[in-house]
Amino acid sequence: MDMQFSGNRRREKSYRGVQGTIVSMEPTRIGNRRADGCMMFVGLEDQEGNLVNFTVSPTTFVLDYVMLREGMEVTMYYRTDEPVPLIYPPQYRAAVVVPQMSGQMVDVDYYNRSLINQDMTLQLNLDGSVDITTTNNQRFLGSPANNDLVVVYTSSTRSIPAQTTPARIVVLCPRSV
User: Fold this and answer.
1) What's the Cα-to-Cα distance from 168 to each of 12, 152, 171, rounded to whole Å?
2) What are the CA-CA distances from residue 177 to residues 2, 56, 65, 165, 174 (Å)?
3) Based on CB atoms within 10 Å of each CB, which residue in 7, 10, 29, 128 is the most buried?
4) What would the pLDDT profile of 36-93 be if each residue is shown by its tens digit?
């Protein structure tokens, strides 16, 4: 497990990503409900040739609202605090899907009040020009600190933690809102 130490508090990393190629897409269902086309079962082949399955639902955030298709290179992020079946190949519920973008890097993580991610590898510098939105593409009017964020950036310093002024931030608002 990836654990973080912040003062005396220990915190587990919120998201983990799997990078690979979409090799299959099938409509799926929840429980006894029939497959109505709202949910997809996506097979992803990672860089070592392993298959990882994801359920993509209407609540899954797809960066740039890109239409997923077989053969597409993506990174699928899942929440580490959600239950998963103990089966092979592994199966997760996709929280965020990021299509591969040339020249851009993406971090999906919780950022604290100092805008540092949980594994303390990236710190955000906000200069007023950063586009900050919610998952439904509306302007986010609060502070992005202390939230789960999708951070899109093109470069960072070589310091520890690395610092960047992101091109864009998407706030993954709490599910209980």
Assistant:
1) 25, 5, 10
2) 27, 21, 22, 28, 6
3) 29
4) 778 999 999 999 999 999 999 999 999 999 999 999 999 999 999 898 888 889 999 9
* Whole-number Cα distances in Å, 52 to 72, 73, 90, 155: 15, 14, 5, 29
Work out the number of other CB atoms within 10 angstroms of the CB of residue 61.
Answer: 18
Q: Map out the domains of the chain as residue ranges.
A: 12-99, 105-172
- In 13-167, which ranges are E strands? 15-27, 40-46, 51-56, 61-62, 73-79, 91-99, 105-111, 122-124, 131-134, 147-153, 162-164
**Closest to 45 (Cα-Cα) out of 66, 74, 86:** 74
Q: How is residue 110 written in tokens?
A: 């919780």
Q: Does domain 12-99 have CATH number 2.40.40.10?
A: no
Phi and psi at 141, nearest 5°, equal -95, -10
Alpha carbons within 13 angstroms on the beta-carbon side of residue 102 total: 0
User: Could you read off the pLDDT of 127-156 as tens digits, one per residue?
Assistant: 888 999 999 999 999 999 999 999 999 999
In whole angstroms, what is the distance from residue 177 CA to residue 155 CA?
33
